[in-house]
Design goal:
Layout: E1 9-10, E2 16-20, E3 23-28, E4 31-36, E5 42-45, E6 49-53, H1 59-80, E7 83-90, E8 95-99, E9 102-106, E10 113-115, E11 121-127, E12 130-135, H2 138-149, E13 161-164
Antiparallel strand pairs: 1-6, 2-3, 3-4, 5-6, 7-12, 7-13, 8-9, 9-10, 11-12
Length: about 180
């Protein structure tokens, strides 16, 4: 049995769960999320807990069991607390600025790069070296953060670029003067 899949998901106060066929809708104080789960999975709700069950121990059903439970749990957390990713911009002259609903990056290219967030995602730039991405959908927050980071990934020699706040970039030693004979 899947260790993750067999755990029930607690429904906090203020969260409403609707099951209609293969579609689950979770509504909370921050918004509403909908997910259509695989037809082999059976999702049940008793008002206080959500449980996910699988029909047999087939390899695909075992994989879908934990996945379905994790995705529904992420929805419940998203509509109650929300998700947030923080990015740091490092390098001389590298900076970020809020441009309407999106973010404008100056990261060493001839032109500035503008990223517009998808619907449901908010971007804040508290200072020129910090970008805060937040929303209720964990996947969308992570994907938009990855797109911004891909604008200029951190390079290993000087560490310049856009990185996650807690990301550790392994640094390499640069060229060294040739020690030896001529």
């Amino acid at each position: 049995m899947s260790r993750i899949g067999k755990q029930p998901i607690a429904i906090p106060a203020g969260v409403k769960v609707d099951l209609a066929g293969r579609t689950i809708t979770v509504t909370g104080p921050k918004g509403s999320l909908t997910f259509q789960f695989h037809p082999h999975m059976k999702v049940e709700s008793d008002g206080k807990h959500i449980t996910v069950k699988r029909p047999d121990d087939n390899r695909q059903n075992r994989a879908l069991h934990g996945l379905t439970r994790a995705l529904i749990n992420n929805m419940v957390i998203g509509v109650t607390k929300g998700y947030e990713k923080r990015l740091k911009v490092e390098g001389v002259g590298f900076q970020a600025a809020a441009k309407g609903p999106g973010v404008e990056l100056t990261v060493g290219y001839a032109n500035r790069i503008v990223h517009m967030p998808p619907k449901g995602i908010t971007v804040q730039v508290p200072d020129p070296t910090t970008i805060v991405i937040s929303g209720i959908d964990k996947q969308m927050v992570g994907q938009f953060a990855a797109e911004i980071r891909a604008s200029r990934k951190p390079e290993p020699y000087k560490g310049k670029g856009v990185r996650y706040e807690n990301e550790v970039v392994r640094r390499k030693e640069g060229k060294s003067f040739a020690a030896g004979g001529k």
